[in-house]
Amino acid sequence: MAPYLRFENVTRRFGSFTAVNDVTLDIEKGETFSLLGPSGCGKTTLLRMAAGFDRPDLGRVLLEGKDITPLPPDQRPVNTIFQSYALFPHLSVRENISFGPKIAKWAPDAIARGVDEMLDLIDLKAHADKKPSQLSGGMKQRVAIARALVNKPKVLLLDEPLAALDLKLRQRLIVELDAIHDEVGITFIYVTHDQGEAMSISDRIAVMNKGVIEQVGPPAQIYEAPRSSFVAAFIGDTNFLDGRITETLDTHFSRCEVNGFGSIVIDNDKPVAPGDRIHLSIRPEKLVVSRDKPEIGPLDNAVEGKVEDVIYYGSHTRYWVRCGEWKLCAEMQHRTFLLDQSPPKWGDTVWLLWDANDGFLLEQYREEDEGMLTLPGE
Predict the structure, then answer these.
(1) Going from the N-terminus, what domains does the chain have, and what CATH number goes with each?
(2) Of 134, 161, 279, 310, which residue is least crowded by CB atoms under 10 Å?
């Protein structure tokens, strides 16, 4: 079965700069799909090629098996929501939403029904006669969503739609967007540089870097099983350790020597052999901080270190612990009342404990990622 929306070997260049480089990507009907990456990675260019605002130099864009590459934006069953909302300031909420149906020459009663459906969907019926200047940022964004959805597009493109809003409003609108998607059921393509937004709203995520796609998958897979050090570092925070395999214990586990750190046990989630150079990612929340030397089993790792930095976040505390030549970040959740405890503090000697299954071998070690690693002395 053909994918619903397909970018097929698309390349887009701007002079000597290649914004998107030979990307092939399939997006399924009805899913919320996020394009995630840093500024300049190509995600917005990919979105613009779906909308018709940009045309690929090579490759094509297909929707339901039909090549839509030559079609201008107004002939594509696709609508876009921009960061700036792009509402007409002189029109009311109702008039903004009805603009598209009027251009499409809907019958007046169909326009009225469609606008009322959208006002109910975004819960702004009481504000239908207000101008955009009388609305909050969150309300404006909901009007922009309703205006984009009223024509019933096959794909809704969202280009950093929440970037202009404050944190609490962004968090609330993410929930509202997800509920709207569940109700209308159309395909959402969401462009963002915010990993939290992408993780919370997406069925699948494509992580982009320098015009190519590093990894595609569900949020949990992207977070727990990153394919490269770029993905591991961009999605959440992580610790990197470099070493060499000294011994394969069985088909599932090996022993690895990390310079200035010692010998640790790792899970063979990638094929390895003695002598292989490996690059390991361990998320901060996987590390347990203890003042006392722990009892360890055959699959446990424990290393002694000194607390160099402590940052309290309310729900959790982060510790940066110097272990030999390495500085690792560990996260302690506050599941009980913290004031009744005596947590580790700056200068304390502590032990870091983690299970071999909690480290993840990256698919490859890449020299271009050196600047992102936790290197000795940092």
Answers:
(1) 5-229 (3.40.50.300), 237-372 (2.40.50.100)
(2) 134
